[in-house]
Amino acid sequence: MKTSNKGKAIIKQYEGFRAKPYLCPAGVPTIGYGATYYTDGRKVTLRDAPISEAGADKLLDKMLGKYEDAVNRYVQVPITQNQFDALVSFCYNVGQENLRNSTLLKKVNAKDYKGAADQFLRWNRAGGKVLAGLTKRRTDERKLFLS
Fold first, then answer.
1. Where are the beta strands (DSSP E) in the chain?
2. How far apart are CA 129 and CA 40, in angstroms?
3. How far apart are CA 103 and CA 42, in angstroms?
4. N or C: which terminus of the chain has fewer CB atoms within 10 Å of its end residue's CB?
5. Which of the residues are catalytic?
């Protein structure tokens, strides 16, 4: 599966566009729509040049492949497009290994979709602190997953 426009929209909404590099709440240099590295594999640094919104869109599209591949690889049961989009958004934000080792994924693969949906809400911390933005994102990902 590939991420739909609805999936891209939720990622863009919560990542937000930033032309200049910045530190995300977890302290990682980031640019565009939450990119922590460029398509050539270089990590973002705070000294990097700004990018355009069109450049950020291209970077997002290229980066999504990595997270789509992870969801396609780790999910072993049938899921809907909305479930896929929610999982890609989650994976884009927390990383492939966190998805792979999560109770959320275990519940998806057990076809406990309601239980899996509830697991989104547990992932609302960065640096050990509950963040309102992550709480809202996880609520919206959960809602998308269940729709």
1. 18-23, 29-32, 125-126, 129-130
2. 32
3. 31
4. C
5. 15
